[in-house]
Fold this protein.
Amino acid sequence: MEEIITQKYLENLGWVRDTTCPEDVNRWENKNPHEITTNEWWVSITFKDEFGKLPIYGVANYHDSKHDITLHRSFEKDKDKNRTKINFAFLHFKYIEGYMNVNELRKLIDKEYK
């Protein structure tokens, strides 16, 4: 079974807490948006609670050489079906069982993934 994305996992990768979100929201990002240059991903993941054990929502934007966002992808927990929904662009949805795992995070930020 794949490792589920947790706050501890992201901290170990060097991610930082998003200080712009409301106080009771546990959101982490791979870079401060001000530090994004070009040809880079900015990714934000929000956890269910302050313990950061289960991701419920996330966004990934790819900035091209002109600093425009050319890819926007997101995932969210579907509470009714106990699945995670990932939008890999152009409203193409992929469903996976359970919460987002490390492999799905890699797919989320893979520029070539369709």
Remarks:
- Helices lie at 7-12, 102-108.
- The CA atoms of residues 4 and 100 lie 6 Å apart.
- The longest strand covers residues 69-78.
